[in-house]
Amino acid sequence: MAMEGSEHSAMDSSAQPAEADHGVLSTATSAADLAAFARTEGRIAWLTIFIGGAAAIVAAILRHRSWAAGLAIGAVLAWFNFRWLKRGLDALVAVSTAQEGFPKPRIPVGTWFQLMFRYGLIGFCVYVIFVVLKVPLASMVVGLCALGAATIAASVYEILRPGA
């Protein structure tokens, strides 16, 4: 029983600084942190295009032009998806921090629409390109995976070179 009380008080004392800092968002607002985040976001953006473009070039060299087109289209759509996600989350964070003192912040419908609309728009683009241009659907889906590959590559880079 005595150990439970000491563990509980240790947990309370470790929780106090986080409450005083108002959570993770306010602790990550130093200029150095924001600059590091911006560099990583930029790295993910250009790596998405680079990885998708490299895959499209390899497919074109192997004489699979329709797959090359699909990979390139998917990578560009993945890049747009990343940009729209970033804008939506930036808006969500701005609204949430503006209502910091409220028990339950209210998020405008437009912000939710912006976050969800990107999925519908990407799906619509893929459908139209598949039907009109006859680009293989699988190639566009693989091209969309360029964002995941870019995120993994940027994360590994951050682990290996944290200050860069």
Tell me about this structure:
This protein has helices spanning 2-20, 24-27, 31-61, 65-98, 109-133, 137-144, 146-160. By secondary structure, the protein is mostly helical. The chain has one domain (31-160). Helix 3 (31-61) packs across helix 7. The longest helix has 34 residues, at 65-98.
Number of strands: 0
Number of helices: 7
Share in helix = over 70%
How much β-strand is present in the residues?
A: under 5%
The description of the largest β-sheet is: none
Q: What distance separates the N and C termini?
A: 48 Å
Q: Whole-number radius of gyration?
A: 21 Å
Overall mean pLDDT: 80
Low-pLDDT stretches are 1-27
Order of helices and strands, N to C? HHHHHHH
Number of domains: 1
Content-based structural category = mainly alpha
What structural keywords apply?
mainly alpha, 7 helices, single chain, 164 residues
List the SSEs and their pairings.
Blueprint: H1 2-20, H2 24-27, H3 31-61, H4 65-98, H5 109-133, H6 137-144, H7 146-160
Helix pairs in contact: 3-4, 3-7, 4-5, 4-6
